[in-house]
Design brief:
The protein is an alpha/beta fold. The chain has helices at 6-23, 29-72, 79-93, 173-190, 224-229, 323-331, 341-350, 388-404, 424-429, 444-456; strands at residues 107-111, 114-124, 135-146, 150-158, 198-205, 209-210, 231-234, 261-264, 273-275, 305-306, 317-320, 367-375, 408-414, 436-439, 459-461. It folds into 3 domains: 6-145, no CATH class; 150-215 and 272-461, 3-Layer(aba) Sandwich (Rossmann fold); 231-264, no CATH class. The strands form 4 sheets. A 6-stranded mixed β-sheet has the order 11-5-4-12-13-14, sandwiched between helices. Strands 1-2-3-15 form a 4-stranded antiparallel β-sheet. Helix 8 (388-404) links the parallel strand 12 (367-375) and strand 13 (408-414).
Length: 463
């Protein structure tokens, strides 16, 4: 930026000469021509010195960008250390000729998760000095920001039975996932300059997601199916403990097979698992299974549906920034059950959404919301179907809706040795092609999580 009063002085000077020339009534052609050279020379001088100013400004911008990235990527510096390092990088990268002036010491102004660096140079003029303009003030400024000012991340992690498989190194997918998750949590914690600026939810999924059995008294649960599948029959056939979706029930007990009196089990015995929202016959017209709609009493189809799924995964952890608790959640994950990526994504999105069931705080301004969805297989079972194409279509709707709501989605397909081929569902779910990862080794989970962590917490020059 050229901010000199000299240009205004130049304009006034040139204008005086032009007015004097235009008002002259006497003299010969040679004199007129000679006088005309004065404003022309001044105009030429203005153009030449402005071009020099552009060169200085461009070189200053490059140098302060280098300085900003240098101090921004080095943690724990005092303000004085930032100043010293920034000056060293600026001086090393400033390439303008010395005849263009020597920039003053740069200004470094840290503020929260950003730092502003400003450089100034009094550039000596050439032809403009004839008009009394002896220098031009050139100023360049840049701001470097550590990632987003605030970041909410939902880790939607496959905990199905196939995650116990190992690659050629003997590392199982679930073990690699735990290692990768721990490293990512450390990266996210380090990116948070202020406690709470970065928050994380962890959503293990199989066919179902485990909300946590402590919610059993919540008003947004629809117990109709669970009551019919879990209980005891007196005075007729069909007795025994019923339900345990996926296991078929103990003795086949259910209200439909009981010819006597059916007594549902206490809801306090629920294991915490929920299946897809909607009607028994399929998704409701409002598509609650693929949206983050808050449950409402005006439509019980919007309620979450308990299921006593025998392969219920580790209970999810709502959004928070207790890094010890988050780490313990990762350690508690185990592999069992079938694959339903849709419900994992739906609850991962719900973890970032205000209202029941998980009720995170109000979304702060300047907060980026991210879902990282990892799965090692194709969809095999949801509440209504075991058809992959059917479940994939539900997943596509959920992904489209979440992205339309401003959620950035990364997807990871762990396909050991490439035996399953590409996952079209996960590829289409990602926010863009660069956010889809197709892995063929368990160990690649760690490097991929590191890559994503660097992207979402990336140091960037803002202006």
């Amino acid at each position: 930026m050229v901010t000199s009063n000299g240009f205004r002085g130049l304009i006034r000077c040139v204008s005086r000469h032009v007015r004097a020339f235009a008002g002259a009534k006497r003299g010969n052609v040679a004199m007129i021509f000679a006088l005309s050279l004065v404003p022309l020379a001044l105009a030429t001088g203005a153009g030449l010195d402005y071009a020099r100013a552009v060169v200085v400004h461009a070189s200053m911008e490059d140098a302060i960008d280098a300085a900003a990235l240098a101090i921004g990527s080095t943690s724990g510096l005092t303000t004085q250390q930032q100043q010293t390092m920034a000056q060293q990088y600026f001086s090393a990268n400033y390439k303008a000729d010395p005849s263009y002036g020597t920039p003053a010491a740069i200004s470094v102004t840290p503020s929260g998760q950003q730092v502003i660096i400003t450089a100034t140079d009094q550039m000596p003029t050439t032809l403009l000095s004839a008009a009394g303009v002896h220098s031009l003030t050139i100023t360049a400024s840049t701001k470097v920001v550590w990632g987003q000012l605030k970041l909410w991340v939902s880790l939607v992690l496959d905990n199905t039975g196939s995650m116990t498989e190992t690659d050629s190194t003997g590392t199982s997918k679930i073990t690699a996932l735990k290692n990768a998750s721990h490293q990512l949590l450390t990266m996210l914690q380090n990116a948070s300059a202020t406690a709470g600026d970065v928050q994380v939810a962890i959503v293990p999924f199989t066919k179902d997601v485990n909300l946590g059995s402590s919610y059993y008294n919540s008003t947004w649960l629809n117990w109709t199916d669970w009551d019919s599948a879990n209980g005891s029959c007196a005075g007729g056939g069909g007795g025994g403990w019923g339900g345990w979706g996926g296991w078929g029930g103990w003795g086949g007990g259910s209200s439909s097979s009981c010819s006597g009196t059916w007594t549902p089990s206490s809801h306090s015995s629920w294991n915490g698992c929920v299946t897809d929202r909607g009607t028994d016959s399929g998704p409701a017209s409002q598509n609650y299974d693929v949206n983050n709609t808050t449950p409402t009493s005006s439509d019980t189809n919007s309620y979450f549906v308990p299921e006593q799924y025998g392969n219920c995964p580790e209970a999810l952890l709502p959004l928070g920034y207790n890094w010890t608790t988050l780490s313990n959640e990762v350690d508690g994950m185990y592999a069992s059950g079938n694959t339903n990526q849709t419900i994992g994504l739906a609850l991962g999105w719900q973890a970032l959404s205000q209202g029941a069931p998980l009720s995170p705080p109000t979304l702060p301004a300047n907060t980026q919301q991210v879902i990282i969805l990892l799965s090692d297989g194709l969809n095999t079972q949801d509440r209504w179907s075991s058809s992959q194409s059917y479940i994939d279509a539900r997943e596509q709707l959920a992904c489209t809706n979440a992205k339309a709501a401003g959620i950035t989605i990364y997807t990871i397909f762990v396909d050991l040795n490439g035996t399953q081929g590409n996952s079209t569902a996960l590829q289409n779910c990602a926010s863009d092609p660069s956010k889809y990862f197709d892995l063929t080794t368990a160990g690649a989970i760690v490097s991929t999580f590191n890559t994503i962590g660097q992207q979402i917490t990336n140091l960037r020059v803002a202006q």
